Amino acid sequence: MQIPQSLSGQPLRRRVNLWNLTLKGRDISRGLPRKATLGGEESLLIPPTWENISSFPLVTSLVNDTRPLGLKCFGLKSFFRTSSTLVDNWAFTLHYRITTGVLIAFSILVTGKQYFGDPIDCISRDDIPTKLLNTFCWIHTTFSVPDAWEKKVGVEVPYPGVDKYTPGETRKYHAYYQWVCFFLFLQAILFYVPRYFWKAVEGGRIKSLILGLDCPIVSEEAKKTNRKLIVQYFLSTLRHNGRYFFCFVIAEIMNFVNVVGQIFLLDTFLGGEFTTYGLNVVRFSEWEPEVRYDPMIKVFPRITKCTFHRYGSSGDVQRHDSMCLLPINNVNEKIFIFLWFWFVILAIISGLALIYRAAIIKSKTVRFRSMKIRAPMCDVDNLKIVIKKFAVGDWLMLDFLSKNVDPQNFRDIINDLAEELDGNRFEKTNGTLTTMF
């Protein structure tokens, strides 16, 4: 790196001290080191200029970082970053990466529409300021008249759910739309919880086992040494990885319980309308045109009513009815119809994943066939030996290893394991598994 001109006039030792820094203190007001040492000798820094601060790692990383500012500040990129080590399956990924990402995107969309757009527009025949009426109706919520849903639009009512209201009649209030953006973000967090739990329990065990064998181009000596270490690890922990498997199953159960629970949580949030929401939308096209109404409009009405009270000129309380247009519900209805179908599909996939996991626990044949599909290059006989000797926890670790190691290297690992597990080279002495190389 070329030394800036601001340092070119400094003595050589002074320049070395300034450019090869071991920081001891920081000037908090400037965010720059004020003292540095080299070989025990301290030096004061020269007055800061762009030329001599741009080389600091923090400054360089901020300048060269091309990510959007939101990703820098809030770390949202970690939700979407693909991990170099796979310690789960594609069904698991649908929860913590796809669903979490979709929910965060929806939350940002609704937030922008709600706080930076025009979420509500109310009209009244009276002399109430429009801005006041809009703010009041947004804060105090609007309502629909349930008896007006099935009346003919243009004949009996001006819009589904909007009709003359007499005090004492049933009203259905719509308070949820103020909280949609926060609720979606909460859902995103809940979908990430099983992943967070599993990462904390897994602790990078598979990552530490790869030992560079994920690359096909490795020297034979390094391959042999690293394979030996991996084989030693599996043999030394044989039938002691049950907790590892148990925790992964717990995480998969958490995924299933979470998505089913979210369906019922959404149903409560939307006033009992969500569980049948998707089915009603599908059936909508089959209803008679004269009597049918869009179920999406019933759950997310675009026009509602609002009642505003104030004192009149005579001192009595006057009641003013207004109609309110909710453009934000045009977005909400699309979001939640997508979530209904997605959650149902995700719940089915998660349920099938648990059935598959139960089969893995029950049958070594299923484990063998699954591993054979995962690693087709492996010798069938050697793979049978390994699967026969391995408990279900050992199998899971081997399965994860197969996703992260080069196929040829994994084949060699299986061959080495089979050689150690088969015959006289693998013995059980006093209840302890032993091996010799």
From TrEMBL:
<protein>
    <recommendedName>
        <fullName>Innexin</fullName>
    </recommendedName>
</protein>
<dbReference type="GO" id="GO:0005921">
    <property type="term" value="C:gap junction"/>
</dbReference>
<keyword id="KW-0965">Cell junction</keyword>
<dbReference type="GO" id="GO:0005243">
    <property type="term" value="F:gap junction channel activity"/>
</dbReference>
<keyword id="KW-1133">Transmembrane helix</keyword>
<keyword id="KW-0407">Ion channel</keyword>
<dbReference type="GO" id="GO:0007602">
    <property type="term" value="P:phototransduction"/>
</dbReference>
<feature type="transmembrane region" description="Helical">
    <location>
        <begin position="335"/>
        <end position="359"/>
    </location>
</feature>
<dbReference type="InterPro" id="IPR000990">
    <property type="entry name" value="Innexin"/>
</dbReference>
<keyword id="KW-1003">Cell membrane</keyword>
<feature type="transmembrane region" description="Helical">
    <location>
        <begin position="244"/>
        <end position="265"/>
    </location>
</feature>
<dbReference type="GO" id="GO:0034220">
    <property type="term" value="P:monoatomic ion transmembrane transport"/>
</dbReference>
<dbReference type="Pfam" id="PF00876">
    <property type="entry name" value="Innexin"/>
</dbReference>
<comment type="function">
    <text>Structural component of the gap junctions.</text>
</comment>
<feature type="transmembrane region" description="Helical">
    <location>
        <begin position="176"/>
        <end position="198"/>
    </location>
</feature>
<comment type="similarity">
    <text>Belongs to the pannexin family.</text>
</comment>
<keyword id="KW-0472">Membrane</keyword>
<keyword id="KW-0813">Transport</keyword>
<dbReference type="GO" id="GO:0005886">
    <property type="term" value="C:plasma membrane"/>
</dbReference>
<keyword id="KW-0303">Gap junction</keyword>
<keyword id="KW-0812">Transmembrane</keyword>
<keyword id="KW-0406">Ion transport</keyword>
